[in-house]
Amino acid sequence: MELRALHRRRRALFWSKVLPYLPYVLQSGVAVLLLIISIVFAAWYTSFLRDLPPDLPIRWIMLFLLGPLTVHAGFRTYLQPADILFLLPQESKMNSYLTPAFRSGLIYKVPGLVIALLLIWPLYQRSEGVLHPLWLMLLVLVLLKALSTYGAWQELRIASSRARTGYRLLRWCFILLLVAIWVWQPAWKSALFMLLLSLNYVLLLRFPLKHTVPWDHLIALERSGAARTMLVLGWFVEVPADGQKVIRRRYLSAVGNRLPWNSAEAYRYLLIKTFTRSELLGIVVRLTLLGMVLTGWNDQSWLGAALYLLFVFLIGTQLASLRQTHQDSPAASYYPLPAGARKAAVLRLATSLLLGIAVLLWLPMLALPGGDPALTWGSLAGGLLLAWGMRSTWARKWREEDEE
């Protein structure tokens, strides 16, 4: 069996399932929304560059923006559970199958890093201290990205889950430190320090016990990556959403336990437990925190209100994916559940979450001084109306789909 050709066929098969949904995503208005966001951001950023605050921590902003993009690494191997049986005899030759996954994991993430660097470059040129040329800055960040990708690839092979977590934390600290050194220090000092530290990091990666091919771990990551892609598509169109990663969050295990124990609340209980253990919760939390920061930062202008409404809309779009949760569950066939209970539970949970998040996103506008009271309270009213309007849209759309 030609393993490299097998990888190409599996990649083509996966994207053949994804690409037919893209026209529906564009028809949903996401293209127009992205265009509007780009125009608004360009206008705001141009105005911001013309009148920079004198105490703006530009280099810290660069570290905050470029650091995570440099460290982040991910891979799509397209491995399947049956490979443990059928490809195990060729384990010694699996490098020809896995090398394209490693290469793609690096190449496809570099454009995002380049775009972020180009966006922040006008800001960097206005900072005080050491300034590196653009080509040199880009070269160093790409090399650090390659080093982080190599480290992440080696982490996948580590046998112990505890050691894997420790090395992942080490990689984040190590790469962020190198990015910080490069941003603040002269080129020759930074290059010497990065070279010595990188050699030590590569040597440290040789110590843990590793699998030749971590079959179970790679298959689990592939299932999670495919489910994440379908989850994103599920914000715009009806798609299968099987195989989503279950995350153990013990500190949230008590959420939902006080619901009445009756058939009318069965789906609500199930949805709450699923939501607290899904990747969707992490996405919503990250978007909420980012929205609070940006909204609070611009609370004295109309841009803050626009950002507030934008984040309410984005989070609401993601909460709409709860409709795919347990859609094919056979529970209704052998439990005495009311008709339409799942749809009602989804609407109730998604609406409650969105209204609560709308208030949470608005709190920085209330807490920070200097804002216009009319704009502040008007933003809250607009956010709550938008959340309720999205609820009405969900109900009408899902009713029409059920009738069809």
Topology:
Layout: H1 3-18, H2 22-50, H3 58-71, H4 83-86, H5 95-107, H6 110-125, H7 134-157, H8 161-184, H9 187-204, H10 215-233, H11 266-276, H12 279-297, H13 302-319, H14 331-334, H15 341-367, H16 373-403
Helix pairs in contact: 1-5, 3-6, 3-7, 3-8, 6-7, 7-8, 8-9, 11-15, 12-13, 12-15, 13-15, 13-16, 15-16
Characteristics:
404 residues, mainly alpha
Could you explain how this protein is built, in words?
This protein is globular. With 404 residues, it is an all-alpha fold. The chain has helices at 3-18, 22-50, 58-71, 83-86, 95-107, 110-125, 134-157, 161-184, 187-204, 215-233, 266-276, 279-297, 302-319, 331-334, 341-367, 373-403. The model has no long low-confidence stretch (mean pLDDT 81). Helix 6 (110-125) runs antiparallel to helix 7 and helix 15 (341-367) packs antiparallel against helix 16. It starts with a helix and ends with a helix.
Give helix % range.
over 70%
- Overall mean pLDDT score? 81
Largest sheet: none
Q: What percentage of the residues does DSSP assign to strands (E)?
A: under 5%
Quick one: overall form? Answer: globular
Low-confidence runs: none
Number of strands: 0
| Rg value | 24 Å
